[in-house]
Each structure stands twice: as C-alpha cells, then as structure tokens.
Write a structure and sequence with these properties.
The protein is an alpha/beta fold and 254 residues long. The chain has a single domain, classed as Rossmann fold. The protein contains eight helices and seven strands, in the order βαβαβαβαβαβαααβ. A seven-stranded parallel β-sheet has the order 3-2-1-4-5-6-7, with helices on both faces. Helix 1 (24-35) packs across helix 8, helix 3 (74-87) packs parallel to helix 4 (110-132) and helix 4 (110-132) packs parallel to helix 5 (158-182). It starts with 13 loop residues before the first strand and ends in a 7-residue tail after the last strand.
Length: 254
C-alpha cells in the first residue's frame, strides 16, 4: 500500500527531524514528511543507509539531509539540534529510533535491560529536550511507542514494553509543560505489527497468531502508519496534544 500525501504543502518551508530515519517506520515517515514539503533531517547511526535514504528522497524532488549520530546520548542529540537549526525553521520531530528485545525476564541481564531503556526512553527524552530548544512556536513532536506499551501479546519483552509504556507518560507530561509557553504539541502513536524485515523473520506460527488477533485480519504497512505521523506533524491536528493514537488494525480492542 502506498502512502497518501495529505497535502503537498502542509509542511512547506519547515525542517522535520526523524530519528531512526534510515529504515522501517522512520524511513516511511521521512518520505511522507518530505512529500508534504518539509526538509527532512534523517538521524541514525549508520551513514550508508542514511545517505541512501536521503538520495531516494532527493530523487523524488524533495529535500533531505542526514546525520550519523548516537541519538541515545545527550551529546548526540545536541549535535542533531544544532544541525537542524542550521537548516531552517524546525517544526517537526519524529522520535522513531528504537531497539527491541525478546528475552524471558528470568534471563534478561541488567545491561541488556538498561540498553533498551536508554535507547527507547532516555534517548527520546534527550532528543525532545534538545530539539524543543530550537523548535519554532507551534511545532509538533511525535513519539513512536507501541501497542506493547498498552497490552501484552504473549512474547517476553519486559524491557521493550517498559520503555514504550514510559514514552506515553513522557508524552503527556511534555505536552502539558510545552503547550502554553512554547505552543509545542507532543503526541504519541502506538503502532501494532506492520510489515518489516524483523517481522518477516518470525517463525513457528508466531506471525499467524498475531494476525488472528487483528480484527482487520492483516499486519499494517509502514506507509499506513506514516499517514498518521503526517497528520500529527501538521496543523491538521492543531488541537491535539498529549494524545496517544493507536494504529493497530484493532488488535488492542480484543
């Protein structure tokens, strides 16, 4: 399924920062925002994939830059903020960078648990802090959580679920703090399962079991989730802040 461009000029003249922007949902979101007129700054650790994604966006006639940096560190986030401010008026931040784990709690090490929390939760907080300091009034931040921040699907993912649930509390608090003085909206999305290389690797009928829990009877596409990201990033959602939008084909209502 292809992405539907909400309006090609909704983000004209703005800069949109997308972490995890070289693959998966981050890449789909970056392409959507670029089609809406934003100059997209792609952020991830791998320079090669970042450069390739930026070139794809440019080949489509849109604007893109990239920065290879560790977005889980305050120092790395400060570099991103400085680069974004140098590109123009920063209006959008999409926090899509993240890592996962599937380890029984009885065997998960302290170091592994901390790493997931540091990347998924702490890194998002540092990025929000730094980008908000250079963001224009009326800007929009979208934090990518997960349905696993709301429900369990029977896979042992304590660290991942904890980090994604934490993002929802962080989103609500920042929305309150930054609404009046800064006019910055902060929202979260909770994607369900969508097509990705990681999902394709599931074996032993796990994917079939997941699909059976989805009322729409299928996994989603990254573009379907990117459509929601584009909506929240733009002024079409100008009266929405502190919200959590679930994009899961109805899985969490069962």
């Amino acid at each position: 399924m292809t992405a539907a461009i909400l309006q090609p000029s909704l983000l004209e003249g703005s800069v949109a920062v997308v972490t995890g922007g070289s693959s998966g949902l981050g890449k789909a979101s970056a392409r959507m925002l670029s089609q809406m007129g934003a100059h997209v700054l792609l952020v991830a650790r791998g320079a090669e994939r970042l450069a390739a994604t930026a070139q794809e966006i440019k080949d489509d006639g849109a604007m893109a830059s990239w920065l290879a940096v560790d977005a889980s560190s305050p120092e790395g986030c400060a570099q991103v903020a400085a680069r974004a401010a140098g590109l123009g008026t920063v209006k959008v931040l999409i926090n899509s960078a993240g890592i996962g784990s599937a380890v029984p709690a009885s065997r998960e090490t302290a170091a592994a648990f901390r790493q997931v929390i540091d990347v998924n939760l702490n890194g998002t907080y540092w990025m929000c802090q730094r980008i908000a300091s250079v963001m224009a009034t009326g800007g929009s931040i979208v934090n990518v959580s997960s349905v696993l921040g709301l429900v369990s699907v029977g896979i042992p993912q304590a660290a991942y679920a904890t980090s994604k649930a934490g993002l929802l509390g962080l989103t609500r608090d920042l929305a309150v703090q930054w609404a009046t003085r800064r006019g910055i909206r902060v929202n979260a999305i909770c994607p369900g399962y969508f097509s990705s290389p990681m999902l394709d690797e599931l074996r032993d009928g796990t994917l079939d079991e997941i699909v059976q829990r989805v009322p729409l009877g299928r996994v989603g596409s990254a573009e379907e989730i990117a459509n929601v990201v584009g909506f929240l990033a733009s002024d079409l959602s100008s009266y929405i802040t502190g919200a959590t939008l679930v994009v899961d084909g109805g899985m969490t209502i069962r």
